[in-house]
Design brief:
- The structure is a homodimer of 181-residue chains.
- Chain A is α/β, with parallel strands linked by helices.
- Chain A has helices at 41-59, 75-94, 104-112, 119-129, 139-154, 165-170, 172-175; strands spanning 2-7, 12-21, 24-34, 63-67, 98-102.
- Chain A has a five-stranded mixed β-sheet.
- In chain A, helix 2 (75-94) links the parallel strand 4 and strand 5.
- The interface between A and B is medium-sized, with 29 and 29 residues.
Chain lengths: 181, 181
């Protein structure tokens, strides 16, 4: 299964594509789409739409996973995140992809086994699960890969055989091998 | 000038198109686009996009005016309104329209002369300014017409010669002729 995660945002929209091969997961692509803050919101949404359209058309994912966004303390950001998520959901469904949404806590729980994990813990788990030498950068790309991994672990046919959180918490030796941002 | 107002929403998205002819304004079209609440959010966004695309393509407005949305008390609604506004802004700009956003208070101020006007006061002013026998229904359509009227009054080349709010406040005789919902 080929899953594209999208961490929606108007200034920075992260994406990360993961292919599952039995219990193994491979990061295929990860990055961030940015839009110029000195342009109008409609133009920025059009840029985001064009880039996402290109990305989904090129990658042909089976499933597109978008973070389900809720109220945030910064009302202005919450609205632009909502607008960006609308454009991401729309683009994915128009290109015929299955579209799934997960909350941030669902992603944390699926990736680290703990719904209250920090961003840093999630990102280091992403690097570990994808067998990467370092945490993917920028952070938005790592977050998007986490979304894709969340779906692969949550979808019942694809539960991966990664270490349990309790083992990870104590595996300090291995954890220190993960590159820090 | 031909202005299309859009009051964004996922369940109900109001639209209202006003043509200005010197100081007079004519309501050309008004209505609401609804999406089925039992469908997925991505499918509903795609439906909204398709309907808005059809509407803008048919009407060919010079300007599309979308309500600028901020945080609302219901976080779930705020996000779906944000998603719908993103789709509306995107559709308008992709179809080559000038796109303008106004806040609800800017619309109230422009249409009634008082930024703290009630929804009912705004809607009755819409009926009066457009010389309609009754307040347009549903309310979302009236709100969208108010957005279009706001732009026509705010754009400096098109300020209409409608009665001042102080005169309207005392013109009880005429106000009673406006049909109530």
């Amino acid at each position: 299964m080929f899953v594209l995660g999208i961490d929606p945002g108007l200034s920075r929209c992260g994406y990360g594509c993961v292919r599952s091969d039995g219990p193994r997961r491979h990061a295929v692509a990860a990055g961030v789409i940015t839009t110029a803050i000195d342009e109008s919101v409609p133009s920025r949404l059009a840029t985001l739409r064009a880039e996402l359209h290109k990305l989904v058309s090129e990658l042909h994912p089976d499933v597109v996973v978008v973070e389900r966004v809720f109220f945030q303390t910064n009302a202005r950001t919450a609205m632009s995140v909502g607008q960006a998520s609308g454009v991401a959901l729309l683009t994915a469904v128009e290109l015929g992809c299955e579209v799934v949404e997960y909350t941030s806590n669902e992603v944390k729980l699926a990736v680290t086994g703990f719904g209250g994990a920090t961003k840093d813990q999630v990102q280091r788990m992403v690097a570990r699960l994808l067998d990467l030498d370092a945490v993917p950068k920028p952070a938005d790309a790592a977050d998007a890969l986490a979304l894709a991994l969340c779906h692969l672990s949550t979808a019942p046919w694809a539960r991966p055989s990664w270490p349990t959180p309790s083992r990870l918490d104590t595996a300090k030796g291995r954890e220190s091998q993960v590159a820090r941002p």
